[in-house]
């Protein structure tokens, strides 16, 4: 990468919840030339479609966008997303298209039809004790389910990732990942999504983020990654060489995750090693993708 590849840094805490607007979505932005990351404020909660619109039409030039969601599902452990199913997609972009196609009638970029599909439901853990008979594999016998290669790299860094096939519990990321993949498909190539797309020499780029990695880089442990006080947030920002926010008192963890991760992206974006993690092959890039910052 050339020096100063990006001029702006945007972190988006995503949500897979049902409904037209998502209290769990937060968007924070900062610039290369300094200043604390600031939330992009709205009069009402975000909708997923509004985030899609910003990514497609309203980003500052040369923005590195980090989205807190899984950009694909496990593939390498079984050589397929849905082993044994004849229609299993061959790569991440085909997976995105399949999710969007099956969920055509689901409103608000939701993905309920996908996880309730008569064939695909076998692979998911859903609410009400409905665990599919293919949720576990010999390589994923524990409660977290199947993991991507990048999630195993996160695990080695002290994080506790769960499978994107898991839709149950506070630690689940499956719902946000599936709705996020619908959104990425609807972007229709307007922005490259690294590493599924190669990193271009100019322009804005989307990467997958795991906000716990930003918290660890700021000196917090994985178990203390959530911040709900502005004083603690400012201390974490200082650890990333970022100015403090002007806010005081309580803050919701969606907002603090976005603010802290935007500062982290600004600090580490020019680290060449993070763009070439040792576990990332061309096959993994095309199928599973990667989490920026995992190595």
Automatic annotation (TrEMBL):
<protein>
    <recommendedName>
        <fullName>DUF429 domain-containing protein</fullName>
    </recommendedName>
</protein>
